[in-house]
Amino acid sequence: MGGIDNLGIETKIEEREDFVNFKVKPLFVTFPKNEEEVVKLVQYAYERGIPIVPWGAGTSLTGAVSCEECILVDMKNMSQILEINEVDWYVRAQPGVNLEFLNRKLMERGFLLPPDPASFFLCSIGGAVSNSSGGMRGVKYGTFRDWVLALRVVLPTGEVIQVGEPFRKNRAGYDLVHLFTGSEGTLGIITEIWFRIIPVPRETQVSLLSYMPDLDSTAGVIQDMRRAGILPEIAEYIDNDVVHALNSQLNAGLRESKGGLLMLRVLAQDLDRMMEILNRWGGDTVQLNQEEWERVYSLRAQSAIALKAISKEMYVEDIVVPVSRLMDAIKRIRKLEEKYQVKMPIIAHIGDGNLHPNILLSDRQRAEELFEEVGKVAIELGGSVSGEHGIGVQKAKLMGIQVKAHGGIKVLEIMKQIKDIIDPKGIMNPGKYVELAYREAKSDR
Ligand SMILES: Cc1cc2nc3c(=O)[nH]c(=O)nc-3n(C[C@H](O)[C@H](O)[C@H](O)COP(=O)(O)OP(=O)(O)OC[C@H]3O[C@@H](n4cnc5c(N)ncnc54)[C@H](O)[C@@H]3O)c2cc1C
């Protein structure tokens, strides 16, 4: 293994796949136990010019951990919660901590880290930060970007830096915390994270499950809810194909209906107004008790897993449009379904305009063409090709098109220059994200 054994770090030879079947064929997989071991690994890669790729839990949906002949750095052995500060309201932890585990520990102390990607029970916090993941509570609490205070990072040269401070108000310099958050492992390996936490909310909330006539009326509910100034904690939608997949693959026992399910959690004080809006749009609504809600929330989280059980081939879209353009987006998605003669089951963080139409075609070429067309719908409606899953390999071309169209090629040039400054040898998770988006956009000039 060319000297890697001499580093004294646990190492294995194995191939992997991520959740959507992107291949990971590393030279070897390593399992560092602490930051010093990460530094040794990065220095080893830097000296030899070998690609090095961090791996959290591999639930990426965009090929962000795929690689060949790289060193794969699996962070699972760096999984300690280092400090929960109940006065300064932060938690400091290593990147390999599982998100659900972290929140369980926080809740024991009355605190919460709100972002909850539907993979919360699988994913690592390092992966969630590097992806700037969102989730079901995103409509109220935003994405991971809104919760990271500070980071320790091993740069691609092997140097270690700390960016940010463990408190909210800090104006000392450019915002590097948010440069590394969402950088998809292309700028360094995160070894420690400080998250802002909040006390578990004490307001009384009510949970609603509404059987909707269709997705258009669901969009109508969301738009009227916003006009009425109602901010839900959760506003999630799954169409009936997803409900059916949950029933057939996970024995969910959910009632199937033509138009799918809208799941809402709102403050008790907003219940009457919310019900009035739901009724107006034809929702058949039931109020859930806490136990029923937890079951529905958990099923929603497993929706992608149920779809994956039906079709091994799965392209997960992650488009976002301004909520005011939701109906236009839905119309155009329906037209694409007609054009390609295929139905895309939709999971949506509908409250913040984030739609996941899922392409389950086995014909790769058609799937990729459709994938691109759906992405372009978002760009043309003033939205984004990714709200939370990130770019990886899969959406790099679309990202290039979006940034060029909305911001200009100069923006991509600046992003590429940042990558080059921090990673002069181009070893850190190379050939993806900004690097690939820039290359694609330039070749398309
Ligand atoms: C069933 C399912 C549901 C999902 N639902 C959601 C959702 O609702 N919202 C959402 O946003 N995402 C969702 N995802 C996508 C994904 O699970 C999340 O984005 C998750 O946070 C990624 O975490 P991970 O630990 O698996 O990271 P990985 O997939 O291992 O890695 C993700 C990226 O982070 C980098 N990385 C990992 N660890 C580090 C580190 N320590 N330092 C630097 N870079 C690092 C990797 O190189 C890669 O680029 C879902 C995925 C699945 C399978």
From TrEMBL:
Pfam family membership, one: FAD_binding_4
The keyword Nucleotide-binding belongs to this UniProt entry's keyword annotation: no
Secretion signal span: none
GO molecular function, one term: FAD binding
InterPro entries, per the entry: FAD-bd_oxidored_4_C, FAD-bd_PCMH, FAD-bd_PCMH-like_sf, FAD-bd_PCMH_sub2, FAD-linked_Oxase-like_C, FAD-linked_OxidoTrans_Type4, Oxid_FAD_bind_N, Vanillyl_alc_oxidase_C-sub2
Cofactor(s) needed for function: FAD
Keyword Flavoprotein appears in the UniProt entry: yes
FAD-binding PCMH-type domain location: 22-200
UniProtKB keywords: FAD, Flavoprotein, Oxidoreductase
SUPFAM superfamilies referenced in this protein's UniProt entry, alphabetically: FAD-binding/transporter-associated domain-like, FAD-linked oxidases, C-terminal domain
PANTHER family referenced in this protein's UniProt entry, alphabetically: GLYCOLATE OXIDASE SUBUNIT GLCD (PTHR42934:SF2)
Family statement drawn from the similarity comment of this UniProt entry: Belongs to the FAD-binding oxidoreductase/transferase type 4 family.
Name assigned to this protein: FAD-binding oxidoreductase
Native source species: Metallosphaera hakonensis JCM 8857 = DSM 7519
